[in-house]
Specification:
Blueprint (H helix, E strand, L loop, with lengths): L9 H13 L19 E5 L10 H15 L2 E5 L7 H4 L4 E5 L8 H12 L3 E5 L10 H7 L3 E3 L4 E7 L13 E6 L3 E2 L8 E6 L14 E8 L2 E6 L11 H14 L14 E4 L9 E4 L3 E4 L5 E4 L3 E5 L6 E9 L8 E7 L5 H7 L1 E5 L20 H7 L7 E8 L2 E6 L2 E7 L11 E6 L6 E10 L19
Length: 467
């Protein structure tokens, strides 16, 4: 249907290229499909302190410089608040607040930074960035929560809630590490998308009643914002897992990796990475899925389907997926709206497949309702992470309406009008397509929807979600 989108004359391509080169740095969120090295991207690390000064700041700045050198983004570092002018900030795709403390910007500088974010600039807050600018409401919303207190440095268990975001995709379901663990004055969960929480039973001194976010992301007032509470200790910046966590936050902030950072509340796991959670599922047809130690399901053989035995009525389904092949020439999909059957072809004939495939016709590629309706290809391409990186689908079924979000961006809106099919036949399944096709899945979760029009669950439910 939209194959023509991909065909550019050489003149058009040249004009587009020139347009890209001339664009201001802060327009990064309109970039390509993500995942490429950060060509031309520039990050400012700001580490001014007006209160407590962390002795790990030099290690933090050096770590960001190293990551930039390894991944192709330029890094400048400053403690001079005078850098916060409209003209200077426009040079940067993100500003990293590296354990800043206290009141570090004056009113004019604050206004310049607000305009920078509103124009698409991004924020990365590390550790004491939450102990900064208590009287500046815009900053409090951007950071997500303010620091309240902390116990002594000690080991704790971090529970990784979102393993699709590039800041946390490399981690297992839990992450054991030693740091200074902040308590916050409020819980950011309603406004921001929580990536990881602290298990308060694993250490002493947590004050957040068992729901203790420690890393999160959000779209905020036009820009992107990522925060991690880790990074108090010098050792953090030598730890490969923490460095990768920081890198993933920066890559998402500058627009080189995509993720769903809309607030997410009220979902129930259908597959949470454990063998126990697979007891509610059945394999139909040939082939299978294998479960790895890190809680990832990977397809092999086929064509078969792993399907969930309990029907769903009106729901939002979320799951993370990844293609193995560098060429993207893998094939899988998520089936919805089919009656129970041990024959995978029943789902093909009676349900709908949300496709995962980088190389077919537009109505048979990622985000399409397979053979029925192409995704919005331009939006899909901007939202998509390349093979080898995780993506997140939200698939929302209400009556005969099916909507699809890829990494938080709405890319398809389809209504079934075929009386021989019905999206109300509420089973879901994951396809294992064939011997040459390897696609992995994580964290399959569902939220029942009630009411009308698809606006459910506060911020989360709307077509745009988040800020």
């Amino acid at each position: 249907m939209r194959a023509s989108v991909r065909i550019l004359t050489s003149a058009t391509a040249a004009a587009l290229l020139l347009g890209c080169l001339a664009a201001p740095a802060v327009s990064q969120n309109a970039g390509g499909a993500g995942g490429e090295d950060s060509a031309g991207k520039r990050v400012l690390v700001f580490s001014k302190t007006a209160g407590f000064r962390h002795d790990s700041i030099p290690e933090g700045v050096a770590a960001v410089r190293d990551l930039g050198a390894a991944h192709g983004f330029a890094v400048d570092a400053t403690e001079d608040a005078g850098a916060f002018t409209a003209r200077n900030l426009a040079r940067y795709d993100a500003v990293v607040f590296m354990s800043t403390t206290g009141d570090v910007l004056d009113r004019t500088q604050q206004k310049a930074f607000e305009r920078y974010v509103e124009r698409g600039g991004s924020y990365v807050g590390v550790h004491a960035a939450a102990d900064t600018e208590y009287d500046w409401a815009f900053y409090g919303g951007l950071a997500g929560a303010y620091f309240a207190s902390h116990p002594a440095i000690q080991p704790a268990t971090v529970q990784v809630e979102d393993r699709g975001h590039p800041a946390t995709a490399h981690l297992g379901p839990t992450w054991e590490r030693t740091d200074e663990w902040y308590n916050y004055r409020s819980n950011p969960r309603e406004q921001a998308h929580v990536l990881a929480t602290l298990d308060e039973s694993s250490y002493s001194g947590g004050t957040m009643d068992g729901d203790h976010p420690i890393a999160w992301c959000q779209e905020y007032e036009g820009g992107r914002a990522f925060y991690t509470g880790g990074g108090h200790t010098k050792e953090s910046y030598a730890d490969p897992a923490f460095r990768q966590h920081l890198l993933g936050g920066i890559r998402w902030a500058v627009g080189d990796a995509q993720a769903d950072c809309r607030p997410e509340n009220g979902y129930t796991p259908l597959f949470d990475g454990t063998a126990e959670s697979l007891k509610g599922w059945k394999q139909a047809g040939p082939g299978s899925f294998t479960l790895s130690d890190d809680g990832t399901l990977t397809s092999s053989g086929g064509m078969g389907m792993l399907w969930y035995a309990s029907p769903l009525k009106s729901y939002s389904l979320k799951l993370d997926w990844k293609m193995a092949s560098a060429s993207g020439d893998d094939n899988s999909g998520v089936f919805v709206g089919f009656p129970p059957s041990d024959d995978p072809w029943s789902a093909v004939d009676n349900g709908y497949e949300i496709q995962i495939d980088a190389t077919d016709a537009p109505d048979r590629t990622t985000g399409s309702v397979y053979s029925f309706q192409s995704a919005d290809v331009k939006k899909r391409d901007r939202a998509l992470n390349p093979p080898g990186e995780w993506n997140t689908y939200e698939i929302r079924v209400e009556g005969e309406r099916l909507r699809i979000w890829l990494n938080g961006v709405k890319i398809n809106d389809f209504t079934n009008r075929d009386p021989a099919r019905s999206l109300r036949d509420g089973h879901i399944g994951l396809q294992n397509h064939g011997a040459e096709d390897e696609v992995s899945f994580r964290n399959v979760r569902v939220k029942e929807l009630t009411g009308h029009h698809g606006h459910h669950g506060g911020h989360h439910g709307g077509d745009h979600g988040g800020h």
